[in-house]
Design goal:
alpha+beta; Glutathione S-transferase Yfyf (Class Pi), Chain A, domain 2; 4 strands
């Protein structure tokens, strides 16, 4: 059965979920969500995901949102990209770090900088968010000194979750 990923190209979180599906070798296909036209706030989409967000993974009767949860589901289904069993919680720790300190703030920053008309961009908020993301990236850079991967000896979903976005500097 083919996994469907409800997503749109501008979403970094959808990208992480799609990349994880692809790298794990799962049979999947994208289902476009016209997010900027309000599709995620429609009644139909609400039935799919009450959080009104993308991505959303659908596999038969199973539905799951949130990129980190989707990434872990892929690991659980395929046995790939999870690292060594003893690294499970360290991978989870870095996924949560990404969701809380990096992706959420980077996504808002990216939206404010690229999808709002220039005259409506809140420069002070953008600068504040850029500072927060740069601090998180500095934490990650320090952690990666002398290492190839975020956790363990192979690529994991913790590595896929880390998207360094060039617009932040």
């Amino acid at each position: 059965m083919t996994v469907k990923l409800h997503c749109f190209g501008e979403s970094g979180n959808a990208y992480k979920a799609a990349l994880t599906l692809e790298l794990a070798g799962m049979n999947w296909e994208p289902t476009f969500v016209d997010f900027f036209a309000g599709a995620a706030r429609s009644a139909e989409y609400h039935d799919l995901n009450v959080m009104a967000e993308a991505p959303v993974l659908v596999h038969g009767d199973f539905t799951l949102s949130q990129s980190g949860a989707i990434q872990q589901w892929v690991v659980d289904q395929t046995g790939k990209l999870g690292g060594a069993p003893e690294d499970k919680y360290e991978v989870l720790r870095w996924l949560l770090f990404d969701n809380h300190k990096m992706s959420s703030q980077a996504g808002v920053t990216r939206f404010l900088m690229n999808f709002l008309p220039e005259d409506k961009r809140p420069i002070a908020a953008i600068k504040f968010l850029q500072g927060r993301v740069m601090a998180a990236l500095n934490t990650l850079d320090t952690h990666l000194e002398g290492r190839t991967w975020v956790v363990g000896k192979t690529m994991t979903i913790a590595d896929i979750a880390k998207l360094r976005l060039p617009f932040l500097s």
